[in-house]
Amino acid sequence: MTALFIPILSGWALGYIVNYLADVLPETRRLSRPACPNCGNAFLPVDYLLGRRCRTCGKPRSKRMWSALFILTGISVYIWSNPPHNLGYAVGLFLLAYFATVFIIDMEHRLILHPTSLVGAVFTFGAGWLAHDLIPTVLGGLAGLILMSSLYYFGRLFTRIRNRKLEASGLPMDDEEALGAGDVILAGILGLVLGWPLIWFGILLGILLGGVYGLLLVSFLYITRKNTGTAWMVFMPYGPFFILSTFFIIFLPNFVLYVVPK
User: Fold this and answer.
1) Tens-digit pLDDT profile for residues 152-204
2) Which of 62, 201, 210, 229 has the fewest Cβ atoms within 10 Å of its own Cβ atom?
3) Where are the domains of the chain?
């Protein structure tokens, strides 16, 4: 039990760091004092750390805070016992921090921020070099950019077709894109750490995970009769599913060997 003190403490601290980054970066694009999303008043440090509701407007903290703390602590313990190949626990924990930050921000705001992309690119390049040498790392990053760029331009074509359908139905056009430029950059970043040729499977698995989620979401909207007329027009972020696929490949290698046996 004593040996687990390090991963438990590290995972709990990581949860606070990820929560902080997910709270401030979408709003200020910099490291700043966290504020209540409802009224904009800054939290007292003790209130923020203890997850207390806003003293000004009384709005409670999001459930995401405690979920992230417990989930990341659990994953930290898992990584401690099963460190990723050629990377080790410390590098795996940094990867987890990047994955979790991008996942939460994209799910909540549909944003992949340039600061996180820049830090992620530098770190995943180093991690990829450690994991599988320089050439597979560079090829993986290039392949991720090329593969996702082709899907991005296909998505732009889909957006044009969608806008024509909205216009024909008398609805306003919103220029929402199936994939954003941030998804293209993210694919290149993930390609660095996955390397070539594993990046193609990472993208494929991410698309499949997103497709399953989208199907469940549309089914839920129809079953509950919420937005049934526009259920097929609902857009969702794809970045989190590419993050999930990369997480499975790096931290659950037996899963990959089972799905894609050598």
Assistant:
1) 887 777 677 766 766 666 655 555 565 678 889 999 999 999 999 889 999 99
2) 229
3) 1-81, 112-262
Digit-coded pLDDT (tens) for 59-86: 898 889 999 999 999 999 999 999 988 8
SS (H, E, C) the chain: CHHHHHHHHHHHHHHHHHHHHHHHHHHHCCCCCCECCCCCCECCHHHHHHCCCCCCCCCCCCHHHHHHHHHHHHHHHHHHHCCCCCCHHHHHHHHHHHHHHHHHHHHHHCCCCHHHHHHHHHHHHHHHHHHHCHHHHHHHHHHHHHHHHHHHHHHHHHHHHHHHHHHHCCCCCCCCCCCCHHHHHHHHHHHHHHCCCHHHHHHHHHHHHHHHHHHHHHHHHHHCCCCHHHHHHCCCCCHHHHHHHHHHHHHCHHHHHHHCCC
Structure confidence at residue 106 (pLDDT): 92
Which of 201, 251, 210 minimizes the C-alpha distance to 84?
251
